[in-house]
Amino acid sequence: MSLRRARVVPVNRRVLIVDDEPDVLELVEFKLTGRGFEVIRAGTGVEALRKARCESPEVIVLDLLLPDLDGLSVCEILRAQPSTRDVPVVVFSALDRPLTSARGARARVFRWLKKGSDFDSLCDSVSAAFNEHSDRVKHRVMPEEHPTRESAG
Question: Which residues contact 80 (CB under 8 A, 6 or more apart)?
């Protein structure tokens, strides 16, 4: 593979919101779309893992109290997958950080916010996570694509 001409990987503004409370999903989606983000919703941990792999979000907003898997387990699985290991996760949960901070550190949580925080703080956290992730992605390069014999000829 040649790296003579590098291409920058395109960046989307897609955010995956994971929460089992429909009202929370709707309100967070409203706030984030108002800031120019495209929102994907998931109501369970399993659905979140599937959508994270299929939809390639740039940031994930994750509740810790989900009906099937707890949010930190979701985060640990995301970190173990090559396609999702670098996606920043903003935890937005009713649980206090001190109760889960050791596991959260292992799961590399970008920021912790307690539900009940103002939504501007959540949107600012998502924007900060997006900007940090975008800066990392901008510096990735893809190998130059080589024409095949059929397309070259």
Answer: none
